[in-house]
From TrEMBL:
GO molecular-function term, one example from the UniProt record: pyridoxal phosphate binding
Pfam families according to UniProt: Aminotran_3
Keyword Coiled coil attached: yes
Coiled coil start-end: 349-376
Keyword Transferase attributed: yes
Names of required cofactors: pyridoxal 5'-phosphate
Family indicated by similarity: Belongs to the class-III pyridoxal-phosphate-dependent aminotransferase family.
Record keywords, A-Z: Aminotransferase, Coiled coil, Pyridoxal phosphate, Transferase
Organism: Siminovitchia fortis
Lineage: Bacteria, Bacillati, Bacillota, Bacilli, Bacillales
Name of the protein this chain belongs to: Aspartate aminotransferase family protein
C-alpha cells in the first residue's frame, strides 16, 4: 500500500459518522471513555448504532452496514430474528412474567437439549455470561481436586477476572520463552498472586506444554483451553488428543471454553468437531441467540460438588450456629436460567437444526472468495477459521498456530482495510474476527465482495 493511503480510511470515517462523534463526546460525560465495556471502544471513536435488522446495522447518521461483528458472534441468527422474537413474546404471554425467582420448566427443557448436543455435559448450571461460566468451571475444578492453581494458554481469553486475565495479549518482550511463557497481567488493579497461580502454556505445542504440566501436576486443578483460539486459530487434532490423554494421566481436569465456538463449528461445538469429551465445558454467546447467558456443564461427580444443602446455605442466617457453608461450592445468581432467555435459546437451537449447514457454507464461500481477491493481486493473506467464524491475517507465514505466530501479521494494513470497508458499508470492529449468521445470504456476499474489490484496488 502506498504510504499516502495509510490513514485515509479513518479520515473518510470521521466525515461519514459525525453524529457518532457528537454522541461519543456526550457519552464521555457519563461513562469513562464513553463506553460501558472496553471491548466496544476503538479509536478515534466507535460507531453508535441506532437500529438492526437481519444482517444489517444502521448508525445515527443513517449509514447502513452489513454486520460481521454480530455482537462478537452472539447473533448467529442475525438481528431480530422473527422466530426468536415470537418465542420470547409467547413465553411472556404464557407465563405472565419475565422472572420467576424459582425453578421453572424451561430450565429442564433447555438443559436436556444441551445434554443431547454436548455429551460431555452430564449435569449443568446456567449463568448470565460466558465469563461467569468459566469462573464457575474454575471454582468447581478447585473444589473437586483440592488444588488451587490453573493453567491456561498464551493468547487465550476466558473472561475479564483476575484468574484468567493474564497473557491474553502480552508484549513479546514480556512474554518469555516460547516454550515457557511467562504469566503477564493484562490489567491494572490485579494482585500479583494471580500471575503466580495461573500457569501459562504454549498453544499447539504438545511437547512444551507437556513438560510444564508434568512439573506442575501436583499444583494444577485444571487446564482451561479455547479449542479454537480467539474463535479462529484451531488446535491441531494431534495436540487436542494429546492434551486430553495427558490431563487424564496427570489427574488434571480439562476445561473447554466454548463460549466462542458454541454452535459456530456445529451444534456440538468443538468437542463434536474433535470428538473429545472435556471434564467441564463453558458455553455462551450464540447459545442465547443474542440474550445474556452462559452454561457450565460437565461430569456428574464434578458438577455435584455444587449440590445445595439446607444446612450449608451462605444466606440462611437461621442456620448460622450450626451450618458450614464451606461444605458446599457456592453458586447462585438471581437471573440464572432466566425464562425469557431460555425461550430465546431454545428457539435459536430449533432454527439452527434446520439452517446451520447453510450458515457454515456461506462462511466458507465468503472466505474462499475474499482469499481469491487478494491472491489475484499478489497480497499474502490467510483467512483462518472453521465453521461460521474466521479472521483475515496479512502475513507471509504459511501456518498460524498460536499467539506468537500471529505477531508476524501486518496489523496496520488490516486496520486500514477495516476502516475502508466500514466506509463501504461492511462492518466489523477494526482488527476483529468475522462472524456469519443465517441472515447473510448471496446478496450480502456479493455486496461484501464488491466492497472488498473496490477497497483492494484503492489500496
Amino acid at each position: 500500500m502506498a504510504i499516502s493511503e495509510r490513514g485515509m480510511g479513518i479520515k473518510r470515517y470521521t466525515k461519514k459518522t459525525p453524529k457518532s462523534l457528537e454522541f461519543y463526546k456526550e457519552a464521555c460525560k457519563v461513562m469513562p471513555g464513553g463506553t460501558t465495556a472496553n471491548i466496544k471502544f476503538f479509536a478515534p471513536y466507535p460507531i453508535v448504532m441506532d437500529k438492526g435488522k437481519g444482517s444489517r446495522l444502521y448508525d445515527l447518521d443513517g449509514n447502513e452496514y452489513i454486520d460481521y461483528l454480530l455482537s462478537y458472534g452472539a447473533l448467529i441468527l442475525g438481528h431480530g430474528h422473527p422466530r426468536v422474537l415470537q418465542a420470547v413474546q409467547e413465553q411472556l404471554y404464557d407465563n405472565g412474567t419475565y422472572l420467576f425467582g424459582t425453578p421453572h420448566l424451561l430450565e429442564v427443557e433447555m438443559g436436556r437439549k444441551i445434554q443431547q448436543l454436548y455429551p460431555g455435559v452430564e449435569l449443568l448450571r446456567f449463568t448470565n455470561s460466558g465469563t461467569e461460566a468459566t469462573l464457575l468451571a474454575i471454582r468447581l475444578a478447585y473444589a473437586y481436586t483440592g488444588k488451587n492453581k490453573i493453567a491456561k494458554f498464551e493468547g487465550h481469553y476466558h473472561g475479564g477476572y483476575d484468574q484468567v486475565l493474564v497473557s491474553v495479549n502480552p508484549s513479546i518482550d514480556e512474554a518469555g520463552h516460547p516454550h515457557q511463557p511467562r504469566s503477564v497481567a493484562e490489567s491494572k488493579g490485579m494482585d500479583q498472586y494471580h500471575e503466580e497461580h495461573t500457569v501459562i502454556l504454549p498453544f499447539n505445542d504438545l511437547d512444551a506444554a507437556s513438560d510444564i504440566l508434568r512439573k506442575r501436576k501436583d499444583e494444577l486443578a485444571a487446564v482451561i483451553v479455547e479449542p479454537i483460539q480467539g474463535g479462529y486459530i484451531p488446535a491441531e487434532r494431534s495436540f487436542m488428543e494429546g492434551l486430553r490423554k495427558l490431563t487424564e494421566e496427570l489427574d488434571i481436569l480439562l476445561v473447554f471454553d466454548e463460549v466462542k465456538t458454541c454452535f459456530r463449528l456445529g451444534l456440538g461445538g468443538a468437542q463434536e468437531y474433535y470428538s473429545i469429551k472435556p471434564d467441564l465445558t463453558a458455553l455462551g454467546k450464540a447459545v442465547g441467540g443474542g440474550y445474556p447467558i452462559g452454561i457450565t456443564g460437565g461430569k456428574k461427580d464434578i458438577m455435584e460438588v455444587s449440590l445445595p444443602k439446607a444446612a450449608s446455605d451462605v444466606f440462611d442466617s437461621s442456620q448460622s450456629k450450626h451450618s458450614n457453608a464451606r461444605d458446599v461450592l457456592f453458586h447462585s445468581g438471581t437471573y440464572n436460567g432466566h425464562p425469557s432467555i431460555l425461550a430465546a435459546g431454545l428457539e435459536t437451537i430449533a432454527v439452527l437444526e434446520e439452517e446451520i449447514s447453510q450458515i457454515n457454507e456461506t462462511a466458507d464461500r465468503l472466505k474462499t472468495e475474499i482469499s481469491k481477491l487478494f491472491l489475484q493481486r499478489g497480497i499474502a493473506v490467510r483467512t483462518l477459521g472453521i465453521g461460521s467464524i474466521f479472521n483475515l491475517i496479512f502475513t507471509e507465514k504459511e501456518q498460524i498456530l498460536n499467539y506468537r505466530d500471529l505477531q508476524s501479521a501486518d496489523f496496520g494494513l488490516r486496520r486500514e482495510l477495516d476502516f475502508q470497508l466500514i466506509n463501504e458499508g461492511i462492518y466489523t470492529k477494526p482488527l476483529n474476527r468475522y462472524s456469519v449468521s443465517s441472515a447473510h445470504g448471496q446478496e450480502e456476499i456479493d455486496q461484501t465482495l464488491e466492497a472488498y474489490d473496490k477497497v483492494i484496488k484503492r489500496l
